[in-house]
Here is the input.
Amino acid sequence: RKEVEQDPGPFNVPEGATVAFNCTYSNSASQSFFWYRQDCRKEPKLLMSVYSSGNEDGRFTAQLNRASQYISLLIRDSKLSDSATYLCVVTPGGYSSASKIIFGSGTRLSIRP
Amino acid sequence: DTAVSQTPKYLVTQMGNDKSIKCEQNLGHDTMYWYKQDSKKFLKIMFSYNNKELIINETVPNRFSPKSPDKAHLNLHINSLELGDSAVYFCASSQDTMRGIYGYTFGSGTRLTVV
Here is the structure.
């Protein structure tokens, strides 16, 4: 089993729709989780951290399910500009050596007009 | 104004050649990284330097040699390029070694194609 797994997609949804995707991780000792966004042929950028109690940032909601070892990202009222690849990132702790930071391969999201 | 800049943006070269990629950050960060993103989009750490000192050297062929002349620069030299080296190479920086994931700033990437 891969350390971090994501459905590669693409998820193709109409503008205004709500879309959600998950990321599963294999190391039950993982402590810190993040979502990064990567536009086509660009660098990854931090979208949001994922907190145990779940957290929201505008139209974006991140959830953590420790029992089932997955994190999720929900995007409400999707915009054309949300089209990108979303990378899940898992680390053993908030203060971790970069060698222990695991990036998923990403879920591609495409929003159509 | 660019926080982390890498050059060149694109690099097409023949097998067996030697090439370098340069990276500079103007954020005053102490730690810099090289990541490789392969065709399957996995981002894998290659090297990390903290204040010019090598602190992470993942399982990377010794054809890859990083050099950090000062904490604002981290270059990557690749000898005897192979087809499998084709990938996008990202430079990144962070304030320090352990808080990296909270504040990675990535460069825009160098797309290396070996033919």
Summary: Chain B touches chain A through 26 residues (CB under 8 Å). The CA atoms of residues 2 and 26 of chain B lie 8 Å apart. Chain B is about 0% helix and 55% strand. The two ends of chain B are 34 Å apart (CA to CA).
